[in-house]
What we know:
- The chain is an alpha/beta fold.
- It has helices at 11-22, 37-42, 57-64, 82-103, 130-151, 187-199, 221-228, and strands spanning 2-6, 26-31, 46-49, 69-72, 107-111, 156-162, 164-166, 173-177, 184-186, 211-216, 219-220.
- 39% of the residues lie in helices and 21% in strands.
- Helix 1 (11-22) packs across helix 6, helix 3 (57-64) crosses helix 4 and helix 4 (82-103) runs parallel beside helix 5.
- The longest helix is centred in the middle third of the chain and has 22 residues, at 82-103.
- The radius of gyration is 16 Å and the shape is globular.
- The mean pLDDT is 95.
Amino acid sequence: MIVAVAGAHxxxxxxxVRLLAASGDEVVGMVRNPDHVADVEADGARAAVxxxxxxxxxxxxxxxxxxxxxxxxxxxxxxxxxxxxxxxxRAAAVLLADAAQAEGVRRYVLVSSYGVDAVRDGATPDGxxxxxxAYLRAKLAAEAELLRRAASxxxxxxxLRPGGxxxxxxxxxxxxxxxxxxxxxxxxxxxAVVAALLRAPALLPPEEDPVLELMAGDxxxxxxxxxxxxxxxxx
Length: 235
């Protein structure tokens, strides 16, 4: 399998690249900073320097050419303002979708965020920092656009909404459901779930709601992913 990972120098993506490379998959690690190339290559990926805030769709398409799947794990990062939440967490995710469609990439996994429903329909949650609200709005808008494209047959899609991220060692067990109480999950286990979604024979069709929330839990990762991707029985 050939996988292009956007934001390959990020903390979840770094773990994901190592998992995929260790399994024998070919990984293209997309980074905007040339100084990160050596780190990405050390993780086992072929680095592609692409700034998703300024690149054209053709430039991104060149980076994902030949891939079986793409993963959006990029983020504006701590300290960035409201504007960059939109240009990275929304617009860059959509740009990656443009490139994936242009190149016929058949699977897209979006790493989103728990809590995006709090800003649905323009709601503004009380007591939440405005920059974080902007982040949630950007993630929700990216989800909506990718879901629309998946419904039109552009690609298979999985949207993963992890809870609060920790650096605790992964347990290999998680809770993966359509809706979960707020909680935490290790970055190791997030990466493991993304890898399992990439390996799955098929993702859920759009009408089955391919949005999954992820927290720490007791179900082995592969079993949780298999169960979550099993379509609901016909009524």
